[in-house]
Amino acid sequence: MLHIAIAAGLVLGLIVGLGAAATGNEWLMMIAKGFAPFGTIFMNAIRMVVLPLIATIIFTSIARLGDPRKLGRIGGMTIAYYWITLIPAIAIGMATMKVGLQFASEIEMPQAAATTIPPLQSIVDFLVSLVPANPFAAASEGTILPLIVFTALVAAATGTLAEERRERLIGIADDLSEALIKLVWWILYTAPIGVFGLVAPMTAELGWNIIQSLGIFIICVFIGLIIFLALVTLPLVWFIGGISPNRYLRGTIGAVSVAASTTSTAAAIPVTLDETINKLKVAPTVADLLVPLGASMHRPGSALFQGAAIVFLAYLYDVPIPLAAVGAAMLATFLVSLTVAPVPSSGVITMAPALDAIGVPVAGLAIILGIDRIPDMMRSAVNVLGQISAAVLVGRWTEGADFQGVAND
After folding, report:
1. pTM of the model
2. CB-based contact 203:22 (threshold 8 Å)
3. What is the per-residue DSSP string for 359-393?
4. How far apart, in whole angstroms, are the C-alpha atoms of residue 401 and residue 237?
5. Whole-angstrom Cα distance, residue 216 to residue 353?
6. Residue 98 CB burial class (10 angstroms; 0-12, 13-18, ≥19)
């Protein structure tokens, strides 16, 4: 029901804003501008919690893997596959949105929402900035990416500790992340008012152009997800895993249906396991390990969505994305897409570090949050297909599955 309430806040904000823009009615304009502080409070609350939430989830996810030297063949190949497929997903999302925005109307966003564009960095300067003398001070100054990298390195080091110490640290981080997730839920309960407070005054100033741009955004995300499946997931499953696209899609329809309808690949785990083992013939020992791991770490659809959203919001706020900024945005998106929190529209909420990396106002997240239900269903379906593909390919590589007669199906 929460997504319905958020959508209602968006629709009501659009109605009030469009009415004020079209008629110039003083009452509608007063309502639109009067709710603006609620939108600011909502976005401040999101920014308050998103960084510690991302840091704790990244820490627990990486630390739980244990000593990288002990991951073994299956673990090493799986993590490599996760990382390799996320990069093209982000790139496809950015490229598709860049092309789609050629058909969007020019929009002049409110000047008050804009932020200072960071100076152009060289690739060397960007790499050096990832290792600051004080990552916490860098984060407090708005440079969030170094703190995320620092957290990932500390988590990797934690994975090498003795089991008792490692589990103690993971337990503390787990408890903290659970508390932060509860706080996110509280904030999301205020989202209908917050989204209204952000969208209504913006729409009152921008009119119909923002509606057209949101439609283009949804279409571009859908096209990007189809391209990713056609160029990355299905060819890998077919040519390396030995399963034809027809059989693969028929064999995963249950998991895709559950993931899309609930917008949660975690909720689809029981069905995903059943179809991966019984329909795609992946060995239970491989599926039982990789399906839950994929549900917690591998979200190529979310990565693609975030890449597209970064380009879209940069366009809205007229923020250029030079080469060095693209690298920063892709790295930030890559890291947070591995550890998206289990809350509604978390793929939107966790984009803050990537937006900060290129100087796009975080307030733009509210624009996407209101229409996120449709993109969330689409990317959840692609996420679960990507997670199953990892089990199929690793099963094939380790010769842990029976693929006889499948390739020619």
Report:
1. 0.69
2. no
3. T--GGGHHHHHTTTHHHHHHHHHHHHHHHHHHHHH
4. 13
5. 24
6. middle
d(C-alpha 254, C-alpha 249), whole Å: 10
CA distance 201 to 6: 17
Residue 125 exposed, middle or buried by CB count within 10 Å (0-12, 13-18, 19+): exposed
* H helix runs in 159-299, sequence order: 163-189, 191-206, 209-228, 234-239, 245-251, 253-262, 269-278, 284-297
* Residue 363 Cα to chain centre, angstroms: 17
Q: Provide the pLDDT for residue 108.
A: 59
- The class (CATH top level) of 2-397 is mainly alpha
Give the C-alpha separation, 373 to 377, whole Å: 6
- In the structure encoding, which two tokens stand for residue 395, read together? 């099963």
Q: How far apart are CA 326 and CA 307, in angstroms?
A: 10
Q: Phi and psi for 207 in degrees, rounded to 5?
A: 70, -145
Please give the DSSP secondary-structure letter assigned to residue 23.
H
The per-residue DSSP string of 139-156 comes to HHTT--HHHHHHHHHHHH
Q: How far apart are CA 40 and CA 57, in angstroms?
A: 26
Please state, rounded to an integer, the average pLDDT across all residues of the chain: 78
Amino acid occupying residue 144: I
pLDDT, tens only, 8-56:
887 788 788 878 877 778 888 888 888 888 877 877 787 777 678 767 8
- Phi/psi at 64 (5° precision): -65, -25
d(Cα 223, Cα 244) in Å, to the nearest integer?
22
